[in-house]
Amino acid sequence: MTIDVSAIELPRDAKAWMKSWWPIYADDPQWVPPFFMDKMNFFDPAKNPYFKHADVRCFWARKDGRIVGTIAATHDHELTKHEPGVGLFGFFEFENDPEIARALLAAARAWLAPFGVKTLRGPFNFNSNHDFGLLIDGFDTPPCVANPHNRAYYQAIYEQIGLVKAMDWYAYWLANGPLPANVVAISERFMKRNPTVTLRPLDPKHFDREVQLFRDIYNDAWEQNYGHIYLHDDEFRFAAEGFKQILDARLCWFAYVGDECAAAAITLPDFNQVLKRVNGSLFPLGWWHLLKGMMGWTPPDAIRVFVLGVKKKFQYMPLGAPLYIKTWESGMVMPIRGAEASLILENNVKMRGAMEKLGATIYKTYRTYEG
């Protein structure tokens, strides 16, 4: 039977487009459904400022009258300033049939061609400032908040249709318990020898100020990293508003050197545990599960170190250690069974070394592909 691929209209078709993912994951107990209320804003060009900085086209594939796959093609204006000829793909979901995936990827490639795109890279939903990566190892546990999950058969089909590895990214897991004494001692010694270094938690009463401080660190600290794409102020504020309701000030810390904000660590409660019970919609009982999660009646038992960044001028200082320790002390009080730190580049030797000194181990591997 012929596979028919066609473009959709956003935001009109977004909900039906997303609903097609439920049958693909019907027998996957680890999948966390998207929350429609949140995602409808994300896919609305009138609400999501990312659409001002990129050209996006979403497609679905039909077979026998059924929607059997989806893909989004992205021409990111910031990416092409540094890597002309590269386009991004994401939200690449499909039934276990390589011809469906091949047809969707071909549609994305054809749409991107007039922009001068020669290479496709993904999956990015829509770029590296959003959730990204293909899970290739670690299917026995659900994804932590703001990380993706996919069917195990995707990897083989990716490679069958001509996509090749570009980069691996790791998720580390650190189980509940005391941190290594030597790491704590190093942090304490550093703080004692550098009295101008101070730490403070996020102040929810001055949320806009905190967002601006972190944006400045984010764009500076990751500027040279593989895959980093400059994040505009309006995009950053949109993303921050999305996370505002689940932020816990005890898990978000800023480090100062003198009067200058030099580093920050943002850690999130694993709200995916709540979203899994919501199952995409507020009705009939999703609102109750969401309310319990928002009010802390059923708090998540895990956290994710979402981002930890140090401005380039201060990267000679081990500011990460005291930030990790403050975060961990807060997590132990909550309490939690452990923390995920992700996603960390396979070639980020410094960060990987720091995680391993803390006793963390890799428990999930994500991969980005090109073709």
Question: Could you explain the architecture of this structure?
Answer:
This protein is α+β, with helices and mostly antiparallel strands and 371 residues long. It folds into two domains: 4-168, Aminopeptidase (3-Layer(aba) Sandwich); 174-370, Gcn5-related N-acetyltransferase (GNAT) (Aminopeptidase), CATH 3.40.630. Helix content is 34%, strand content 29%. The chain contains 13 helices and 15 strands. It has helices at 14-19, 21-24, 36-42, 77-82, 98-112, 154-160, 181-193, 207-221, 233-244, 272-278, 286-295, 320-333, 349-357, and strands at 4-7, 54-63, 66-76, 86-94, 119-122, 124-125, 131-132, 134-137, 164-175, 197-201, 252-257, 260-269, 302-310, 338-345, 361-370. Strands 1, 2, 3, 4, 5, 8, 9, 10, 11, 12, 13, 14 and 15 form a 13-stranded mixed beta sheet that branches. Strand 2 and strand 3 form a beta hairpin. The two termini are 26 Å apart. Mean pLDDT is 92; it is low at 282-291.
- Biggest sheet record: 13 strands, mixed
Assign the CATH superfamily of the largest domain: Gcn5-related N-acetyltransferase (GNAT)
Give the helix/strand class: alpha+beta
Cα-to-Cα separation, first versus last residue: 26 Å
Q: Could you provide a short overview of the structure?
A:
The protein is an alpha+beta fold.
List the helices and strands and how they pair.
Blueprint: E1 4-7, H1 14-19, H2 21-24, H3 36-42, E2 54-63, E3 66-76, H4 77-82, E4 86-94, H5 98-112, E5 119-122, E6 124-125, E7 131-132, E8 134-137, H6 154-160, E9 164-175, H7 181-193, E10 197-201, H8 207-221, H9 233-244, E11 252-257, E12 260-269, H10 272-278, H11 286-295, E13 302-310, H12 320-333, E14 338-345, H13 349-357, E15 361-370
Parallel strand pairs: 4-5, 13-14
Antiparallel strand pairs: 1-2, 2-3, 3-4, 5-15, 6-7, 8-15, 9-14, 9-15, 10-11, 11-12, 12-13
